[in-house]
Design goal:
Belongs to the TRAFAC class myosin-kinesin ATPase superfamily. Kinesin family. This is Kinesin-like protein. This protein is α/β, with parallel strands linked by helices. The chain has 21 helices and twelve strands. The chain has helices at 4-10, 12-25, 64-68, 136-145, 149-154, 171-201, 271-284, 331-334, 339-368, 380-384, 386-389, 412-422, 448-469, 485-488, 495-499, 503-512, 521-552, 559-563, 574-583, 585-600, 605-630; strands at residues 51-57, 95-99, 103-113, 116-126, 128-130, 158-165, 214-224, 227-230, 266-268, 300-309, 318-324, 397-405. The longest helix is centred in the last third of the chain and has 32 residues, at 521-552. The structure holds adenosine-5'-triphosphate.
């Protein structure tokens, strides 16, 4: 039987006509509201978004359509020339970008009815969309730069960029370009931040002129199926398929809950050194032939740059995690793989599904400012991304996912799969609500007066401790704090705002608020770190108290309250993951339709949803059984 890509190719002339008609009727494409040249001057982005979603499609490559897709020569309407030979296949678009920001892609899904081929146009939304003509530099500027990902990592936060998509859709092309540009800009950005910090400290530090106060180290991990290895480990050994053999690296939580695989950690001191390291690691990345792309990447590659502020040795290190995900494959693509490769594809797809649950939960949590369980322990990939998923982490974090789709109409089914994977991450910023009711144990509810009181008490405690150490009887109130608390928390500000500052920003503020020689700058730094640590701790405790309440009553909580509209997050079952991949967008569309219809007539939507899911699963089992029978 001809595959759907072959069928699509056979009917290309008709599909192209339908597409042209649609194209003529649609509204003109909306470009970016701010041109690239003016981006630097534009107001910075809404910093409240924790998850940013972008779509990207690439141009068709030279002769790609002709080489990759073939019509069915036996079909009665096969496109033939005068000699009866099949005509070479020409490119036909499978996706159209209709708006750049907010991003909108329309996927053109071919179908077949009794009276001939049809085309359905499905719309998907994201924060940003990049069409085939957009250069890598613009993608980098509008994603990494505009969203301040480098500053976030330099300030002790965690920034994570993920490239997702079908094999051959352009993930590596995007990710490598981002890695090289990060190498180009990171050190300049750090020097600017370092100089600012030293200015606040007003010190005679030897680095005052250069701002060189950060240390950078790099690791590069590859996760292939369940097997993690170190891409920086040199090796000459290869297996039967010619793949390099590297030591297996354990991925697990240590006693204090950190996930720190034992990888080669290389210090880098300049753009050139970072660039060289990236090139070495990339050349080590394994590839293997699949049906889609002769040199496709079968693994997730995680480049982690850790940034230490040497003047704040107790503060958390910042991290930038750049992830080139393995190609998402549908069952059809992996059926020619050997057993080992099939297993890897299954594990990769499972990890991608788990990643989806985690990103979606993170996006939902940020949008609602409440607690949502993030199942990051379920998989090695998400364990490695713990810093962005662990709600107990004190570090601010941001995740960006760039979903890539092929430009060809023959790949539209894959494309809808990819777009419906990423589109649910798009969240609307939280609706403005009234202030949270006052809770003495939750700093997020404190007003300015209460915050100043608390800060004064904390700094007084420190001052009294050091006076006691020098045998001078302290009297609260008469203690010189060495800094002006109202400068740390000026009118209009409150603990909630301070809790959103990066640790170095809070320390900078305290250094600027110094108003007497009674304290050295190092003493201020130490106290500031302790006080902001205390504040973060109280906020975290307040958040986790809410979590514990939810966890305790979990049995009575409908799943949709914590995960979204439908009970999909409990899909830990491997078979369901496989079925989701097999059906692609159809899985979500069908279930969404059932839910919508049932809700509109006041039915028991949960029951109907589960029934619909069970019947999809049955269909998948039948398909699998048929495949096994055929083999
Ligand atoms: N925006 C683009 N402009 C021009 N060429 C591109 C673009 N994106 C990708 N390509 C080209 O398309 C081909 C496939 O891209 P790439 O290897 O990045 O895909 P991939 O999604 O990483 O695939 P895999 O999962 O197999 O690694 C490459 O030859 C790449 O150079």
């Amino acid at each position: 039987m001809a595959s759907s890509a072959t069928l699509t190719t056979t009917h290309l002339p008709t599909l192209r006509t339908i597409l042209d008609e649609w194209d003529q009727k649609r509204l003109p494409t909306k470009g970016f509201p701010v041109p690239l040249a003016e981006l630097q001057q534009a107001a910075s982005k809404d910093a409240s978004k924790d998850v940013i979603v972008a779509f990207r499609t690439r141009p068709p490559l030279h002769n790609e359509a002709a080489d990759k897709f073939h019509a069915d020569p036996d079909a009665k309407d096969a496109p033939l020339d005068d000699q009866g030979q099949l005509l070479p296949v020409e490119f036909c678009a499978g996706v159209t970008m209709t708006s750049a920001e907010p991003g909108v892609f329309v996927a053109h899904v071919p179908g077949m009815k009794w009276n001939g081929p049809t085309l359905t146009h499905k719309t998907y939304e994201a924060d940003l969309a990049f069409g085939p003509d957009v250069e890598n530099e613009e993608v980098y500027q509008r994603t990494v730069v505009v969203n301040d990902m480098l500053s976030l990592a330099i300030s002790g936060g965690v920034g994570c960029i993920l490239a997702y998509g079908q094999t051959g859709s352009g993930k590596t092309y995007t990710m490598e370009s981002i890695e090289h540009r990060v190498a180009r800009d990171l050190f300049d950005c750090a020097r600017v931040a370092g100089k600012r910090f030293l200015q606040a400290q007003d010190s005679q530090h030897p680095s005052a002129g250069t701002g060189d106060i950060f240390e950078f180290s790099v690791t590069f991990l590859e996760l292939m199926g369940k097997h993690a290895s170190d891409l920086l480990e040199p090796t000459d050994e290869v297996d039967a398929q010619g793949n390099p053999i590297r030591t297996e690296i354990a991925v697990r939580e240590d006693k204090v809950g950190n996930v720190r695989p034992n990888l080669i950690t290389t210090s880098v001191r300049s753009s050139a050194e970072l660039e060289e390291l990236i090139n070495t690691a990339l050349s080590h990345r394994r590839t293997s032939a699949t049906l889609r792309n002769a040199s496709s990447s079968r693994s997730h590659a995680l480049l982690t740059i850790t940034i230490k502020n040497t003047l704040l040795p107790y503060a958390d290190d910042g991290q930038l995690i750049l992830v080139d995900l393995a190609g998402s494959e549908r069952y059809e693509d992996s059926k020619d793989h050997d057993k080992q490769r099939m297993g890897e594809a299954r594990d990769n797809n499972k990890s991608l599904m788990n990643l989806k649950e985690c990103v979606r939960a993170k996006a939902k949590m940020a949008a609602e400012d409440g607690f949502v369980h993030i199942p990051w322990r379920a998989n090695k990939l998400t364990m490695l991304l713990k810093p962005i998923f662990d709600i107990e982490s004190r570090q601010p974090s941001k995740a960006m996912i760039i979903a890539h789709v092929s430009p060809h109409i023959q790949d539209t089914v894959h494309s809808t799969n990819t777009l419906s994977y990423a589109a649910p991450f798009l969240t609307i910023p939280p609706k403005p609500r009234g202030p949270m009711p006052y809770d003495a144990a939750d700093p997020r509810t404190w007003d300015h007066t209460k915050t100043v009181e608390w800060l004064t008490a904390k700094f007084t405690k420190h001052a009294m401790k050091s006076r006691m150490a020098s045998y001078k009887a302290p009297a609260p109130g008469s203690v010189d704090l060495g800094m002006d608390v109202l400068k740390i928390c000026p009118p209009g500000s409150s603990a909630k705002y301070l809790g959103n500052l990066y640790t170095p920003q809070f320390v900078e503020r305290c250094l600027e608020a110094r108003n007497s020689e009674a304290l050295t700058r190092d003493q201020i730094k130490f106290r500031a770190l302790d006080v902001i640590g205390n504040l973060f701790y109280l906020i975290l405790k307040a958040k986790t108290r809410k979590r514990n309440e939810i966890m305790r009553s979990r049995k009575t909580i409908a799943v949709e309250d914590t995960y979204g509209d439908a009970p999909r997050a409990l899909d830990d079952d491997a078979e369901i993951h496989e079925a989701q991949l097999y059906f692609g967008a159809e899985w979500y569309d069908t279930l969404h339709e059932v839910e919508k219809r049932s809700k509109s007539v006041g039915g028991n939507w949960r029951e109907e949803f589960m029934q619909a899911r069970a019947s999809l699963l049955e269909k998948y089992r039948a398909h699998k059984a048929a495949q096994t029978g055929n083999n």
